[in-house]
# Entry
Amino acid sequence: MLLDLFESAAEVESQPAALGPGAVILRGAAAPTAAVLLAAVEHMIDQSPLRFMTTPGGYRMSVAMTNCGAAGWITDRSGYRYDAIDPLTGRPWPAMPSAFTDLACSAAATAGFSDFRPDACLINRYEPGARLSLHQDRNERDFNAPIVSVSLGLPAVFLFGGTQRSARPRRVPLLHGDVVVWGGPARLNFHGVVPLKEGHHPLLGRSRVNLTFRKAL
Ligand code: SIN
Ligand code: FE2
# Structure
């Protein structure tokens, strides 16, 4: 009886927590592989450095970005898009490491999207004060595939709204190792990140790194 109780409590803990229809949070799912993921990021930014991109409206983003995979998300004065070539280096983006693909596929499968295969990973680096205003991810060709978002380093408050910009977003604390998956009816939900607070993380110091996996092509 007691054992039953404990077993079901453990089960409840390992269940993905729903953020709404089509959206789940897998607490700590990336924690066991964080060091491997971050070593891969280090190697990647030697090849395609983090940079502050410009929005079509001419604003410099406060989040530093780079990509890996067959396609990378970019923004400049001419718009938002995916490109196979890093405009900073003139070369293809670094390949997506298997530790990235494995994590993204297994998180998506846990969330109910078993055939997800990412071809793009946007790497976002936040330092205190950096923020991402509410937006939809809609430069991908196929909205049937979900978005898988991995948080590492300093905690952040994730804003997760609805399909209309006017819906008041939920404020979801995201900690090191948390993975959020949204797809299906939530695929085009507005989301963003409030300005990062000062802090120190044992692996990342004064920063937060977010990996966002997409099927772009
Ligand atoms: C994004 O929307 O691309 C990033 C979200 C996050 O940093 O948690
Ligand atoms: Fe996004």
